[in-house]
């Protein structure tokens, strides 16, 4: 049984039988609960209106109010064993089936959408459950960013190449800055100093 307790839907616009559009999470960041106005998510809402679709936002298990086992959820390996991507996409598959039954739209196509980790889940759901999701839109999803597939420095190499092509001076300045940042970070209060200098989130 699915463990996601929080599900927010934005009703179909004008037609109850249009395609159903599903999104992992409004922030495209599944490491957070559903807790804000979802009607303001431009691209998705605009697209849903155009296709007369229903949007469903599903909270990932072990986040927000979707925490199984209550207070014991994070206390031992046996309960944490249910906190993984395979279980999450199984939740989503079950929820999608239930939504389609609820709206009597069993034949309506489903598109799953997400960004970053949510995009990975959307891609994997489409691969594992092609009979449930017609398609997936994955934005900035590192689906191949694993050992023996993509070099661990792959992202940094590509970004460095981009800076170098734009400006060799800029590239050299940024490259040299990392040595200084590492040196400051190694001091006893170095991370606090960097946080203060760069005004980072605390």
User: How would you sum up the global shape?
Assistant: extended
Quickly count the domains: 2
Tell how many strands the DSSP assignment holds: 5
Helix content: 40-55%
Kindly report the spatial arrangement of strands forming the biggest sheet: 1-3-2-4-5
End-to-end gap? 38 Å
CATH first level of the largest domain? Alpha Beta
GO molecular function, one term: serine-type exopeptidase activity
GO biological process, one term: proteolysis
Family: Belongs to the peptidase S28 family.
Protein name: PROTEASE S28 PRO-X CARBOXYPEPTIDASE-RELATED
Write the topology of this structure.
Elements: E1 7-10, E2 20-23, H1 42-51, E3 54-58, H2 77-80, H3 85-102, E4 110-115, H4 117-128, E5 135-139, H5 154-166, H6 168-185, H7 190-198
Parallel strand pairs: 2-3, 2-4, 4-5
Antiparallel strand pairs: 1-3
Helix pairs in contact: 3-4, 5-6, 6-7
Task: Briefly summarize what is shown.
It contains 7 helices and 5 strands. It has 202 residues and is of the alpha/beta class.
Description:
Helix content is about 40%, strand content about 10%. The chain has seven helices and five strands. A five-stranded mixed beta sheet has the order 1-3-2-4-5, with helices on both faces. α3 packs across α4 (about 115-130) and α6 (about 170-185) packs across α7. It is extended. About 25% of the residues are buried.
